[in-house]
Known about the structure:
Layout: H1 3-9, H2 21-55, E1 64-67, E2 71-78, H3 90-110, H4 117-140, E3 143-149, H5 157-184
Antiparallel strand pairs: 1-2, 2-3
Amino acid sequence: xxxxxxxxxxxxxxxxxxxxxxxxxxxxxxxxxxxxxxxxxxxxxxxxxxxxxxxxxxxxxxxxxxxxxxxxxxxxxxxxxxxxxxxxxxxxxxxxxxxxxxxxxxxxxxxxxxxxxxxxxxxxxxxxxxxxxxxxxxxxxxxxxxxxxxxxxxxxxxxxxxxxxxxxxxxxxxxxxxxxxxxxxxxxxx
Length: 190
C-alpha cells in the first residue's frame, strides 16, 4: 500500500460513485507532494546507480572534479544518517527514517496549511529524500553518497532534498509567525 492508495481510500465519494468536491480537494492536496517525492526518488536513485556504475566498486578511489579539488563527485558508502553522522546503526536508522516519513505526513495533514503549493513542495522534498535514502538502506545496508564539497561530509541528492525541504519549512514557519504578529498588532486610528 502506498501513499496514493491511502489517500484514495480516505477520499469521500458520492453515492453515484463520483468523487465529491471534498475528494477533489484531497486529491489536489496530495498530487504535488507525490509528484515531487517521485521526482526526488527517481533522480536520487538514477544518480546513485550512475555513480556506482562509473566510480565503483571501490569507494573513494576515483573522482570526477567539478570545481578543482573544492567540489567533486566521489563514490562513498554511508552507514549513518545525513552527512555521515551516527555510523553503524542501520536498523535503528531505518526505523528512524520511516518514523520521519510518517511524522512528516502526519504534520502535513494536521498542522500545516497543506492547500498551499509551497507547503506541498516542502512535503514532497522531505518525503522523497527520506525514501531515497531508505531504499538504499533497505536494499544495500548503507546509503550511497557522492557529492563532496570542500571539508563538508559527502552527501547525495536525497540528503539535499531533505535539507532544502527542512530549510523551506523553517522559512514557512517564519512567514506564518510574521503574518501572525502583523495580524495581532493593534490598529492605531488617527
